[in-house]
Write a structure and sequence with these properties.
- By secondary structure, the protein is mostly helical.
- It has helices at residues 4-22, 28-44, 49-52, 74-78, 90-97, 109-119, 125-133.
- 54% of the residues lie in helices and 0% in strands.
Length: 134
C-alpha cells in the first residue's frame, strides 16, 4: 500500500529548493543532492515519485532545474498514442530508467534536445516532438 502523505508532504519542500536554485541561493549540486535525498527517502517509505514532484511538474526542468513555461515529459516523448502504451523496449528502456543525468521527469527544450541527441542520436529529434503533438 502506498504512503501518499509522504510524497505530498515533500512536494512543497522540493518546489522551495528549486525556487532557491532559480534565485541563486542554492547551487545546482546542492539542489540536486537535496532533491535526490528527499525522493529516495520518500520512495523508501512507499511514497510515490509523482506525488513528490506534483507541485513542480510542468514548471521546472528535471535536468537543469530552471523554471520554464514548456516542459517535455518522457511519457509525452515516448508514448505510442496509436497503441496507448509506452513503446520502450530493451536497451531504450534501460537507458530511460537508469540515466542519472536527470533528477525527475520533464526537460526544457534545450535539455530534451541534448538528452535525445546523447541517448538516441540515430533518430531525428523531430520524430519525438511529433509524438508529443499527437
Amino acid at each position: 500500500m502506498s504512503n501518499h502523505e509522504a510524497g505530498h508532504m515533500v512536494s512543497s519542500i522540493i518546489k522551495k529548493i528549486l525556487d532557491f536554485y532559480n534565485e541563486g541561493k542554492f547551487s545546482k549540486e546542492v539542489s540536486k543532492d537535496l532533491i535526490e535525498t528527499i525522493i529516495h527517502r520518500v520512495l523508501g517509505y512507499d511514497g510515490n515519485l509523482g506525488e513528490c514532484v506534483e507541485l513542480i511538474e510542468g514548471n521546472y526542468c528535471g535536468r537543469c532545474f530552471k523554471a520554464n513555461d514548456r516542459i517535455y515529459n518522457f511519457v509525452q516523448v515516448f508514448w505510442d498514442h496509436s497503441k496507448n502504451e509506452l513503446p520502450l523496449k530493451g536497451e531504450e528502456k534501460i537507458i530511460y530508467l537508469n540515466d542519472s543525468s536527470y533528477t525527475f521527469d520533464g526537460f526544457c527544450k534545450e535539455c530534451m534536445d541534448e538528452w535525445l541527441e546523447d541517448k538516441f542520436p540515430e533518430i531525428p529529434k523531430e520524430e519525438y516532438y511529433k509524438l508529443m503533438e499527437d
